[in-house]
Amino acid sequence: MTSITLEHPMAGWTTPYHLLALEFTQRADEGCVIPSHLRHAFATLHPDLQAWDTTAIDPIYDALMELPEDAALAANEPNELAAIRALRPDGPRDLQWKPSETELIDRLHGAWVGRASGCALGKPVEGMGMSLAADGSLAGRKRIKSYLEKRGHWPLTDYFSGRDMGDELKIGCPLSQRENIAFMEADDDIHYSLVGLGVLEEHGPTFTWDDVARYWLSHIPIAAICTAEAQSVLNFQNNVARKHGTTWRWTGAATASFCRRNRNPYREWIGAQIRSDGWAFCCAGRPEQAAEFAYRDACWTHERNGIYGEMLFAAMQAAAFVEHDPRKLTDIGLSEIPRNCRLAAAVRELLTWIPQCATWEACMDRIEARWPDMSAVHTINNALICIMALFYGKMDTLQTQAIAVMGGLDTDCNGATVGSIVGAAAGRQRFRDDLAKPLNDTIKPQMLGFQEVRMRSLAERSAVQWQRCGGRVAALRSDSIGSA
Q1: Residue 5: φ, ψ to 5°
Q2: What gap in Å lies between CA 344 and CA 305, rounded to an integer?
């Protein structure tokens, strides 16, 4: 019998064998030339019988991690904030937004409603959106369209119906289906937005990455944390945090770079990109500050484009309170990340396609053809869906979210991300009730301290942190917060 040891703890999201398989892809993405003997060694492993055989897997994994990366690519894709800022284009940094308190609350309320409604819209087809055909090609978008067409609901204009039409297509999350929806149910895309608000309430604008990590440990069930986040929080917990009585103490045994990198092949996936909103809302009108907060949040779970995805959308979401043009918003987002990173290059390529493609479906054809083998939960391809949706949806609070979801891949993440942008731009008073009304202004997370909350209340709490982080209202009135 093979002896199995776990010198490098795994988060339980998958097996060590599967992590190793993903690491081959990640290291290639980082420009490593992988020698044939390592590929051969991996090919000799049995995917089932040796799925947990770390005595055989770890030497291959360690050898992969020791390979030199492409120096030019690494120079264009740093992981540290100062180096990222040195490579970014010029940008506005601070849009000098000074709303009245009434407008501030209304816009923040719209942003929270957009986050929740976009997440709920895409949640039932999250698995479908990531699905592959028998030949390994992307099939999620086609299956979503087929599902909607067979129910007479194409194009999407409402929450998904769970009605059985006798086909083989099934959706999940009945609490987010048209027949049942009455609130935003628990979801990681919502939990992480609440984390941003919660950390700022506890620590203010000087919070650090390990404040975020400890907040996760104290507030989010580990089973609700996925992929990169699951591995990073395990790295942190095993090597940094020690509980003494009822409090966690920082021991200094690990760094952000260790937490984000150790046995974490998900480090350029979408997990950080979906966490931008809570920070951005509290930095409304200040894209540079929003991107910095997003960096602190991302730097211990992700690297390179995984970090940049959160910074890009944090800047766009913060700017959307002031700027409503999709191209200008995209340029502001790009101004906070390295100009020559792979994410920025992909976004610039997308911007050349949009004038050439009459419909969003034609644009999606190009995205899928350009990146056919990229993981369905990678940062880059999902970021492109979000930006595409802003253009073709014309910033409408229904159409933009619907296109983000109909585009497939990580549907609830993308619906939520663009929902924040169009919600911030519209505010609650101009946010269409098609998606907003069924939620009854209510979120029911699975987080300590946030078991059930009203979106209006979240807006008011975000407004307090916005001012704490440097925001200034145009006129202060003691009664204005309750008057919107």
Answers
A1: -125, 155
A2: 9
Contacts 24+ apart (CB under 8 A), 221-227: 221/446, 224/186, 224/188, 224/191, 224/446, 225/188, 226/13, 226/188, 226/271, 227/13, 227/266, 227/269, 227/271, 227/377
Q: Are 348 and 391 in contact (CB under 8 A)?
A: no
Instruction: Kindly report the pTM of this predicted structure.
Output: 0.94
The span from the CA of 441 to the CA of 458, in Å, is 10
Find tokens 């409090």 and name the residue: 247
Identify the CA nearest to 407 among candidates 395, 422, 418.
Answer: 418
Quickly tell me which residue has 């020791």 as its tokens.
Answer: 66
Q: What is the pLDDT along the chain (484 residues), one digit of tens a residue?
A: 333 334 455 555 689 999 999 999 999 999 999 999 999 999 999 999 999 999 999 999 999 999 999 999 999 999 999 999 999 999 999 999 999 999 999 999 999 999 999 999 999 999 999 999 999 899 999 999 999 999 999 999 999 999 999 888 899 999 999 999 999 999 999 999 999 999 999 999 999 999 999 999 999 988 888 899 999 998 888 876 555 566 655 566 678 999 999 999 999 999 999 999 999 999 999 999 999 999 999 999 999 999 999 999 999 999 999 999 999 999 999 999 999 999 999 999 999 999 999 999 999 999 999 999 999 999 999 999 999 999 999 999 999 999 999 999 999 999 999 999 999 999 999 999 999 999 999 999 999 888 899 999 999 999 999 999 999 998 644 444 333 3
- For residues 199 and 282, what is the distance between their CA atoms, to the nearest angstrom? 11
